[in-house]
């Protein structure tokens, strides 16, 4: 099928037209969020497409100690979850990816099954466990609970990655009597950069965004994470129609994620597809 | 003979190492997933209350009878299934379409792929708030535009109207999660061998035939896995409904129902029964799905 020159040009124009439609559909809500956050006071209720560039909403939300605190909480939780889940997963992935032992397959299946557990099914048992551990209403409860969806996923992706590496790379080290810990640290870790970035980013995003556990295991405002803080900003409290403040808070929470998505697009996509297609 | 013995000794040592390296992860997953799941099932046969979970008595299946006699439970089951089927179908179709579009060899598709990632990566709560504001009955941009176009006279109360709230939630979910579908299907598309298309083109097979006879069948396993992930996600949907229409029975999902009984009413027994029922529901759906689409080999990679 050979197309004429005009046919090809039309084809290109059609595709770029569709690109524009998809981009508009995807991005307009963000534009509107940012534009609304930059309108002050009553101006938010007039529909004007260009923002005023007034930063009152940001001043209001950032001078609110509770919101800043919840930003910090989210950061602490997400960073701890990334560190902890990666540390555990690297060790587990070495065992599952590099060593043939009886029980390997059932354990892989167990991790896969756990990653499919609906969070709500664990809620009452987890509630009891978190109280028993003395973690109720602390950030520790969330760091602990988020292992459910980060750890099995990380183990799967890192195991797949480790298995894809050639057999020979560690053989010499084993024969030399290097300890497994040393093998992981000196041979595998330096090669795992991309896989660690992918899984780390996905664990960060998932923890940053989680809502059900954050809503349930945290009782007081100063321990909340941002999604819950934003969900609980409501008209009945201090602001009457706080959409300006909500949009400003939403923008602040979203910006780091957008930057990450743009900078690390390849890693995120490869992590997602490694988890879904191969895993 | 001697090397064989060494190898066996080495293997046993390696197996010990494996278990040692797995132990922390297994311990954490036991504490955070398996034990709580078991306790949830156990609590579902008791009269425990959230305030004092240590004091309880076994009451058999009573919580399940209470649950199954509650019309609101069945409504939330219907809501969840309806939401899941409709939103996942739309997301699959739209995701496939956009993935095919982005697979075109054009400059700018890297940018498009980054753009499409954004709705998926932000918190659902933020998306819900964003759309809530755009759909506001008095000041929302959507009603404003519709009024300008002369489609409506008065603003529509999108999230307060019982007939509209579910379609609205589905539409917002489509906006949030279609990108996920696009990315997974796109990855599947890029794994297809180019040579078969060249051969088909030389043989004069039309592009539509190439799509239905080559692309779709080859892509089916990728789509099936992506749909499974979305199904699992949609069946436990919580935050979107909670923020957009928290008190509406028309969009109450099973997760919202279970949490409400557990946390708001403090009824750990019935709440756990609801949680256990959800777990079984999702397990059955997953098992049927995996069997029907023969995904077990693909998923486990064995």
TrEMBL record, chain A:
GO cellular component term, pick one: plasma membrane
Record-linked Gene3D superfamilies: MetI-like (1.10.3720.10)
Cellular localisation: Cell membrane
Keywords (A to Z) from UniProt: Cell membrane, Membrane, Transmembrane, Transmembrane helix, Transport
GO biological process, one term: transmembrane transport
Stored InterPro entries: BP-dep_ABC_trans_perm, MetI-like, MetI-like_sf
Name listed for the protein in its UniProt record: Trehalose/maltose transport system permease protein
Organism, as annotated: Shinella granuli
UniProtKB/TrEMBL annotation, chain B:
GO biological process, one term: transmembrane transport
UniProt topology in membrane: Multi-pass membrane protein
Localization annotation: Cell membrane
Keywords tagged on the record: Cell membrane, Membrane, Transmembrane, Transmembrane helix, Transport
Signal sequence extent: none
Protein origin, superkingdom: Bacteria
PROSITE patterns on file: ABC_TM1
Presence of keyword Transmembrane helix: yes
Any one Gene Ontology cellular component term annotated for this protein: plasma membrane
Gene3D superfamilies assigned: MetI-like (1.10.3720.10)
Span of domain ABC transmembrane type-1: 77-291
Pfam families assigned: BPD_transp_1 (PF00528)
Chain segments annotated as transmembrane: 17-37, 81-102, 114-134, 164-189, 210-232, 270-292
Family: Belongs to the binding-protein-dependent transport system permease family.
Record's protein name: Carbohydrate ABC transporter membrane protein 1 (CUT1 family)
């Amino acid at each position: 099928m050979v197309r004429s020159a005009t046919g090809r040009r039309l084809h290109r124009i059609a595709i770029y037209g569709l690109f524009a439609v998809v981009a508009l559909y995807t991005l307009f809500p963000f534009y509107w969020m940012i534009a609304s956050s930059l309108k002050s006071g009553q101006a938010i209720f007039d529909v004007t497409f260009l923002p005023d560039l007034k930063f009152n909403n940001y001043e209001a939300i950032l001078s609110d100690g509770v919101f800043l605190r919840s930003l910090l909480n989210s950061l602490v939780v997400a960073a701890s979850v990334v560190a902890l889940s990666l540390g555990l997963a690297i060790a587990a992935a070495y065992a599952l990816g590099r060593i043939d032992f009886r029980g390997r397959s059932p354990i892989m299946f167990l991790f896969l099954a756990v990653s499919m557990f609906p969070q709500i099914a664990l809620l009452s048992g987890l509630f009891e466990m978190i109280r028993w551990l003395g973690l109720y209403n602390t950030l520790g409860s969330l760091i602990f609970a988020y292992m459910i969806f980060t750890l099995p996923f990380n183990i799967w992706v890192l195991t797949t990655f480790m298995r894809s590496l050639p057999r020979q790379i560690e053989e010499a080290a084993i024969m030399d009597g290097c300890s497994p810990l040393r093998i992981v640290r000196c041979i595998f870790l330096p090669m795992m950069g991309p896989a660690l970035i992918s899984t780390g980013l996905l664990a960060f995003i998932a923890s940053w965004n989680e809502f059900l556990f954050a809503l349930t295991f945290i009782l007081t405002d100063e321990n909340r994470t941002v999604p819950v803080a934003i969900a609980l900003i409501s008209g009945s409290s201090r602001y009457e129609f706080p959409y300006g403040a909500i949009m400003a808070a939403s923008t602040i929470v979203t910006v780091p994620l957008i930057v990450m998505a743009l900078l690390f697009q390849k890693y995120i996509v490869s992590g997602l597809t490694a988890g879904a297609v191969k895993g | 003979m001697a090397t064989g013995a060494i190898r066996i000794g080495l293997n046993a040592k390696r197996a010990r190492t494996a278990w040692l390296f797995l132990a922390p992860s297994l311990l954490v997953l036991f504490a955070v997933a398996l034990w709580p799941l078991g306790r949830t099932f156990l609590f579902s046969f008791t009269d425990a209350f959230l305030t004092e979970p240590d004091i309880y008595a076994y009451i058999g299946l009573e919580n399940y009878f209470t649950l199954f006699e509650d019309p609101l439970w069945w409504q939330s089951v219907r809501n969840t299934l309806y939401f899941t089927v409709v939103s996942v179908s739309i997301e699959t179709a739209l995701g496939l379409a956009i993935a095919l579009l982005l697979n075109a060899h054009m400059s700018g598709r890297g940018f498009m792929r980054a753009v499409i990632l954004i709705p998926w990566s932000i918190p659902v709560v933020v998306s819900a708030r964003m759309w809530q504001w755009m759909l506001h009955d008095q000041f929302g941009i959507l009603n404003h535009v519709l009024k300008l176009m002369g489609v409506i006279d008065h603003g529509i109360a999108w999230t307060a109207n019982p007939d509209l709230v579910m379609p609205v939630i589905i539409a917002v979910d489509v906006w949030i999660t279609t990108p996920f579908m696009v990315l997974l299907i796109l990855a599947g598309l890029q794994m297809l061998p180019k040579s078969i298309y060249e051969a088909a083109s030389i043989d004069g097979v039309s592009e539509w035939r190439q799509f239905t006879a080559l692309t779709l069948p080859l892509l089916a396993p990728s789509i099936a896995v992506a749909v499974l992930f979305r199904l699992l996600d949609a069946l436990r949907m919580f935050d979107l409904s909670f923020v957009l229409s928290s008190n509406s029975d028309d969009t109450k999902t099973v997760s919202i129902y279970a949490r409400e009984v557990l946390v708001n009413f403090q009824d750990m027994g019935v709440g756990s029964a609801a949680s256990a029922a959800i777990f079984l529901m999702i397990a059955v759906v997953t098992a049927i799905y995996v069997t029907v689409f023969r995904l077990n080999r693909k998923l486990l990679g064995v």
